[in-house]
Amino acid sequence: MKQTDLMSILDAPIISEKTTLAGEKNRQVVFRVKKTATKNQIKRAVEFLFKVQVESVNVLNVQGKVKRFGRFLGTRSDWKKAYVKLKPGSEIDFSAA
Q1: Would you list the domain boundaries of the chain?
Q2: DSSP-derived secondary structure for 36-64
Q3: Is the whole-model pTM more than 0.90?
């Protein structure tokens, strides 16, 4: 894959209570990624962008919620979440940016 393709795979880091706990406990970082991204592409993108070593990647497909907009029913978009486990000694610090 080209470098520009790798840069577009990761949409944003997900920072919440649950992901912070996963980071402290299991050395995991959570990202929102493209729906078409594979585990191997996510691994290469994280290693390229953050210069860290990735141990494993777990992927979760999140279904969009059904919401009411006035008298109409609508659905939010589906999206994909990636739990990236880093090797010992590797760390990504989002608070420094």
Answers
A1: 3-86
A2: T--HHHHHHHHHHHH---EEEEEEEEEPP
A3: no
Give the residue among 13, 14, 10 at the shortest CA–CA distance from 43. Answer: 10
User: How far, in Å, CA of 13 to CA of 36, rounded?
Assistant: 17
Q: Rounded distance, CA 89 to CA 53, Å?
A: 9
Band of residue 97 on the pLDDT scale cut at 50, 70, 90:
low
Pairing state between β 79-86 and 72-75: unpaired
- CATH number for the region 3-86 comes to 3.30.70.330
Q: Would you say 73 and 47 are in contact if contact means Cβ atoms under 8 Å apart?
A: no
Q: How many CB atoms lie within 10 A of CB 67?
A: 10
Three-state secondary structure call for residue 26: helix
pLDDT digits (tens, 9 = 90+) for 45-91: 999 999 999 999 999 999 999 999 899 999 999 999 999 999 999 88
